[in-house]
Amino acid sequence: MAVCEYKPGLEGIPATRSEVSYVDGSQGLLEYRGIRIEELAAKSNFLETAYLLIWGELPSKTELEKFQDEVRYHRRIKYRIRDMMKCFPETGHPMDALQASAAALGLFYSRRALDNPEYIREAVVRLLAKIPTMVAAFQLMRNGNDPVQPRDDLDYSSNFLYMLTEQEPDPFAAQVFDVCLTLHAEHTINASTFSAMVTASTLTDPYAVIASAVGTLAGPLHGGANEEVIAMLDEIGSVENARPFIESAIAQKQKIMGFGHRVYTVKDPRATILQNLAEQLFEKNGSDPYYDIAVEVEKVVEEKLGHKGIYANVDFYSGLVYRHLGIPTDLFTPIFAIARVAGWLAHWKEQLAVNRIFRPTQEYVGNHGVSYLPIEKRS
Ligand code: ACO
To answer: Are 183 and 53 a contacting pair, CB within 8 Å?
Structure first.
């Protein structure tokens, strides 16, 4: 077997062959199934994009309507899942609640053969439908309220915002939110997708696959960064303080949250779209002081770190949009998960089609032939 050079973080090492999405990090290009993200953000919606990612092509009108109806029908969660979630501590992070609830779905929906297309479709629909309901239910229950039932007359994003706030959202806000979901739906073999693929390769059930990916997305170097961005803007507090804050953080070799990417060496195209959306929202609903701080932060980071290819990533502006929609900061990553379920499922399906269990090798750098030391002789 050919021996490859060890690369920390598997940087640059292909882990699969995929047709799902493509990134050219030096050009700032992102395509889902060959379609540019800018076009999908402008013309598609999240559920249609999810269909595209998972089944490989845009649905016909009839296919899309059928898919939307199925997802709408499966939005409710069983009362036993809701009651289980009621027992979660309200101080717990919503990503932990989501990981546990996603895994719990596997208890309720029987495992069937993974080569059965009906089972695959059912799992796809259930996960896309129920994850938003679980995120909204935890939010309401941790505040001592009963969750609200999904509303069949509302589309995917409007219904989620309704379940979260108990108020029908402004159509423009719901549209912006839907674009955010589209932008976060997929991004090649990132950490959580790889985690989903490794779990999928053991032929376990799809709920375990998604639970595993949710756990991986939760980390601050991945999906958790958008929360940290808001914490950072909070700490900076004013436009004047942005430059000294960032310069001092860079001098102390701290990572600036919402910047840098393993793949992009230019500004993440999703950050550009999100920045435009944020500007439109603020124009319509009134300005946001955090946005002015963010723009100054971006300017300073580009000046200081642009030469290293460090620019704003998707997490930098998404938090600002969610904050403006009144979404609590610790729900930003669960919302990322709601969107990324589409990509995880697309890779799950792709993995099943060519499956071989993941079993990389290692470079052993430990000792050999060490004698066992009895406990009384150990220092
Ligand atoms: N702020 C300051 N310096 C940075 C940053 C940053 N955000 N990101 C990278 N660098 C610097 C590193 O210090 C390092 O410098 P050096 O070569 O002088 O030592 C160099 O750039 C390479 O950094 P690595 O950490 O090795 O790059 P890697 O590709 O492993 O990391 C990552 C990518 C994890 C995204 C990193 O840029 C980071 O931690 N960013 C902040 C967290 C963040 O925003 N994450 C969201 C990513 S997008 C997503 O997951 C949806």
So the answer is: no
- Superfamily in which the 17-219+329-353 domain is placed by CATH: Citrate Synthase, domain 1 (1.10.580.10)
Probe target for ligand 1 pocket from 248, 261, 340, with the most ligand atoms within 8 Å of CB: 261
Record the pTM. Answer: 0.93
In short, whether 228's Cβ falls inside 6 Å of ligand 1 is no
315 is catalytic: yes
Question: Is the CB–ligand 1 distance for residue 256 below 6 Å?
Answer: yes
Tell me the C-alpha distance between 314 and 54, whole Å: 22
For the chain, give every domain's residue range. Answer: 17-219+329-353, 225-324
Q: From CA 68, how far away is CA 76, in angstroms rounded?
A: 14
Query: Separation of 56 CA from ligand 1 center, angstroms?
Result: 32
CB 332 within 8 Å of CB 319: yes
For residues 240 and 108, give the distance between their C-alpha atoms in angstroms, rounded to a whole number: 54
Protein residue with its CA nearest to atom 28 in ligand 1: 262
The arrangement of secondary structure in 225-324, i.e. its CATH architecture, is Orthogonal Bundle (1.10)
The structure tokens listed for 23 are 């990134």
Query: Can you give the three-state secondary structure of 192-218, one letter per residue?
Result: HHHHHHHHHCCCCCHHHHHHHHHHHHC
Q: Can you tell me the distance from the alpha carbon of 310 to that of 261, in angstroms, rounded to the nearest whole number? A: 7
Print pLDDT tens along the chain (379 aa).
556 889 999 988 999 999 999 999 999 999 999 999 999 999 999 999 999 999 999 999 999 999 999 999 999 999 999 999 999 999 999 999 999 999 999 999 978 888 899 999 999 999 999 999 999 999 999 999 999 999 999 999 999 999 999 999 999 999 999 999 999 999 999 999 999 999 999 999 999 999 999 999 999 888 888 889 999 999 999 999 999 999 999 999 999 999 999 889 999 999 999 999 999 998 988 888 999 999 999 999 999 999 999 999 998 999 889 999 999 999 999 999 999 999 999 999 999 999 999 999 999 999 999 999 999 999 8
